[in-house]
Amino acid sequence: MNYYLTGIEGMPRLIDGHATVMEDFQRKKYTDSFHRMYQEHFATFDAIENGYNTVIDKEQFLTNMADALATHASELVNACGRKNKKEQLQMDLNLTMAVFVLPMILEFHGNSSQPLADKLIESWKREFPKSNLSAAEYTTIEAGFHKKWCYITTAVCRTFGKPDDCYELSLLRDYRDTYLADSPDGQELIQEYYDVAPSIVKHIDQKPDSAEIYRSIWDEWISPCIRMIESDQMEDCRAHYIDMVHTLQKQYFH
């Protein structure tokens, strides 16, 4: 087998599923979608691993692999006509990389896996300078659908440098677990939130002005909710938080 040829041809195909990424990145679908895609592209990862273990210039070998994917992505974006379509496609490709491609590469657990992920981020940054791509393992992403994380609020607090156990997050988590969970349709609302919130955060994180977006979310949504809870306006907080999720879903869940 020509490991180089198999790898260089297979790398661009890793992002061919970008059109369905938002549909696949949901709590009920992510696990099956991830493992299906991983099996579909296993031959590519295996060829790259075998090539990496046998070539002399390992760094150049992985650079070529990473460039093949990043260049393909750039060609797809440049082929779009209007600016808004280019921006939307780039966001979809960024999300595909963040929640499928990079986690799949790390899931292989080969000698080439982490170095290839690092090279991909370098190549991607060169093609898309405004992107903020990072590599996370599948288990970390998948766990987020099950753990009781306040995705949006956590992302906002992170912007302000607040720790995971800060007052605001603790207050909202307590509200969710004690009041909202026991209210009519509360469990359904919480589950709906966990289905869409990770994707909302991923889309915001890919934007160059993500910090400003999170600050506006704090001012318009999070801070009023906190004041409502402190004033025992529990139903008002519920309505405001639902409005926030639906508004952000329309803006960032494409």
Q: Alpha-carbon distance between the termini?
A: 41 Å
Structural class, please? mainly alpha
Strand content: under 5%
Helix content: over 70%
List SSEs in N-to-C order.
HHHHHHHHHHHHH
C-alpha-based Rg, rounded: 20 Å
> If you average the pLDDT, what whole number results?
86
Total helix count? 13
SS elements, strand count: 0
Major beta-sheet overview: none
Shape designation:
elongated
Short description:
This protein has 13 helices and no strands. With 254 residues, the protein is mainly α. The mean pLDDT is 86.
Overall description:
With 254 residues, the chain is mainly alpha-helical. Helices cover 73% and strands 0% of the residues. It has helices at residues 3-10, 21-24, 30-40, 42-54, 58-78, 83-107, 113-127, 138-143, 151-159, 167-179, 186-205, 210-230, 234-252. The longest helix has 25 residues, at 83-107. The chain is elongated and about 65 Å long. The model has no long low-confidence stretch (mean pLDDT 86).
